[in-house]
Amino acid sequence: MQRAEEEKGYESLSPFELKNKLIDMAETHREKIMLNAGRGNPNWVATAPREGFFQFGLFALEESQRSPHRPGLGGVAKKEGLSKRFKDFLAKRAGMPGVAFLGQVFDYVGKVLKIDGDDFLNEMVDAILGDHYPTPDRMLELSERIVHKYLEQEMFGCNAAVGKFDLFATEGGTAAMDYIFTSLSENKLIHKGV
What we know:
Blueprint lengths: L1 H9 L4 H14 L18 H19 L16 H11 L6 H13 L5 H13 L11 H16 L16 H14 L8
């Protein structure tokens, strides 16, 4: 009964107050480690995806160097055959940190999400190299499908009946607020000076 009353008291706290309360509780109970993914940078790193990220960056650079503009200046990766070259890259680096993770990601995207391997790799190589930044001015198409599936799983219990919704990823909180208020204004939901 006491625990239920205590939990009820937390309902009135703002997210920031609740975060502070949890930090206080962790310090009081002498937790050995507290993982904090709150505002700003977290105090931890998920190492497997990070290792995969760096390995994938090396693959993308290799692809860029297949058609260089001149020495030291890579070109745009060629989409045709990317899947085979990626599998060869993974085989050459078997056992290195992040390589098995990349193989699992590639298998998941193809088998579960039914996304063509060359299409997926082409988008990811272009993204990690930043060839066309800051375009597109919206989320990348296949990335949006992947994130949509994740949100469907985590927020709607894998219920695809919730339908399709558009995602608009931003680079940070300030950009997100700007886009939200611009959208509200454009849709006549808020007005200047009111």
